[in-house]
Amino acid sequence: MTPLLSVEKLNVFYDAFQAVHDVDLTVGEGEIVSIIGANGAGKSSFLKALVRQAGRVTGSARLDGCDLAALSTREIVAKGIALVPEGRKLFPTLTIFENLRIGQELGRKGDIGFEQVYEWFPVLRERRDSRARELSGGQQQMVALGRALLANPRLLLCDEISLGLAPRVVNELYAIIPQVRERGVAVVVVEQDISRSLAVADRFVCFLEGEVSLSGRPADADRDTIMQHYFGGAH
Amino acid sequence: MVETILNLIVQGVLIGGLYALFALGLSLSLGVMRFVNIAHGDMIVLFSFVLLSLTGVLGWSPFLVALILLPVAFGLGWLLQRFLLQRTVGKGILPILLVTFGLSIIIQNGLLEAYGPNTRKLSGGAIELAALRLGPIDVGVYPLLVFLLAVALIAGLDAFLYRTAIGARIRAVADDPAAADLIGLTSARIYPVAMGVVGITMLVAASCMSVWTNFDPSIGPSRLLAAFEAVVLGGLGSLWGTLIGGVIIGVAQNFGSQIDASWQILAQHLVFLVALVFRPQGLFARS
Ligand SMILES: Nc1ncnc2c1ncn2[C@@H]1O[C@H](COP(=O)(O)OP(=O)(O)O)[C@@H](O)[C@H]1O
Ligand SMILES: [Mg+2]
């Protein structure tokens, strides 16, 4: 069976600087894969490269066998990859509803609609006519996640959705991930917070200076090994 | 005395409608898309000359010609953004200023070369002379219609921008082009649509202006200034504010001209400066 996403020897360059080196990764349908790594390890660059939004990209990335290199971001989103960008990246003067609708318009047809998103995040229904910038950080992150989910992705990419949020809010956000997987959606979760993202993942890879330094199943990896490959050198 | 003042106000309000039409495209590009188009006035003058030539050849009313040209105006705006202005998006304020400044010079000199420096005016036909007696004052039918057209166009654009999905996309891209690109809302596809709409407002303004007042190849920049003042007075991002801004400028000009002819434009600028001091964000800024 071919995996949903298969990445081979992916490199990302910003001019002469190489942020991602020869990364291989596969993600199966309905699988949750966690990417961990220190600040600057290349995690965001990798996710953005999948939707053709990071510098110059070489190597191959395929979604269900379809080569992504030939496609624009728009087409990739329409094919079924949705990114929840680092820093949320909402449209601050647009209402919650308008922000969400843009995700829906750009995505695939599917059964995740406004009702489902409002069920996951009831506060968004209440505040649907508020402007995005009037919301708290946690609520904004819910909009960013909701916007991506409304695109009915086959593969959801989450870039540090817990950043700067209270643990209670993070729990609320992470509670959605298994429910999303139930629908057959694969999820890649990028976090600096190791325990949080290992807890939700089937598999993990650790990035160190743009390369995969370790990969495996959360249950099989002990803390010390992970720390070594997270920070590099003799930690 | 009261009649004179009333008359000055009414005529000022009506000419404010013309200024608002003139400023509407600028209000969109400056207030919503957040870039300054220095060639805004010159592009309208260019449309005026196109109307001049076509009405000359066809012998039709300039309004009919303008109506037929609306899709062309949209296309020109679209092309301009897609192939020229889009290159400056996300590169700060200077490149767009330089590019549109260059465009302004090219248009002015091109028109001068093609048409010479003479002052022109288009004939709107009998409607130009028609007047209504409203109580103690005479109101020109044509200025009244232009004002109503301005109101209708603003209402339509406001609905387009704030009530439709494509309007929301335009505002999204204006909010954050990089964020839009990240989620596949390609800014390079959205901005040209917005500029196409700006092109339509420019053609409408050109047809109304060139029947109402004289124009020549060099008049664009001074018109740009008035439009700029109307937009800033009204508040960036508020199309209705631009109408109010235009009206304030029209009324100020009329009162100024009572003092002395040279005070007409001076009064306009003074009112603008005073308003700027007390309400720098404009009267109806969308926060
Ligand atoms: N647009 C860019 N231009 C140049 N360098 C960049 C750019 N984005 C990221 N980088 C660099 O690439 C490296 C990886 O960054 P990033 O992918 O954001 O890492 P992470 O998400 O793991 O913190 C960093 O050294 C960063 O400075
Ligand atoms: Mg990052």
UniProtKB/TrEMBL annotation, chain A:
A single MF term (Gene Ontology): ATP binding
UniProt xrefs under PROSITE patterns: ABC_TRANSPORTER_1 (PS00211), ABC_TRANSPORTER_2 (PS50893)
SMART domains per record: AAA
Presence of the UniProt keyword Nucleotide-binding in the record: yes
Pfam families for this protein: ABC_tran (PF00005)
Keyword field: Amino-acid transport, ATP-binding, Nucleotide-binding, Transport
CDD domains: ABC_TM1139_LivF_branched (cd03224)
Sequence ranges assigned to domain ABC transporter in this UniProt record: 5-234
GO terms, biological process: L-amino acid transport
Family: Belongs to the ABC transporter superfamily.
Protein name: Branched-chain amino acid transport system ATP-binding protein
Organism the protein comes from: Roseiarcus fermentans
TrEMBL record, chain B:
Pfam families per UniProt: BPD_transp_2
Keywords: Amino-acid transport, Cell membrane, Membrane, Transmembrane, Transmembrane helix, Transport
GO molecular function ontology, one term from the record: transmembrane transporter activity
Membrane topology: Multi-pass membrane protein
Localization annotation: Cell membrane
Entry's transmembrane regions: 6-28, 60-80, 92-112, 141-162, 190-212, 224-249
Source superkingdom: Bacteria
InterPro entries: ABC_transp_permease, BCAA_transport_permease
Keyword Transcription in annotation: no
Record bears the keyword Membrane: yes
CC terms in the record's Gene Ontology section: plasma membrane
GO biological process, one term: amino acid transport
Family: Belongs to the binding-protein-dependent transport system permease family. LivHM subfamily.
Protein name: Amino acid/amide ABC transporter membrane protein 1 (HAAT family)
Organism per entry: Roseiarcus fermentans
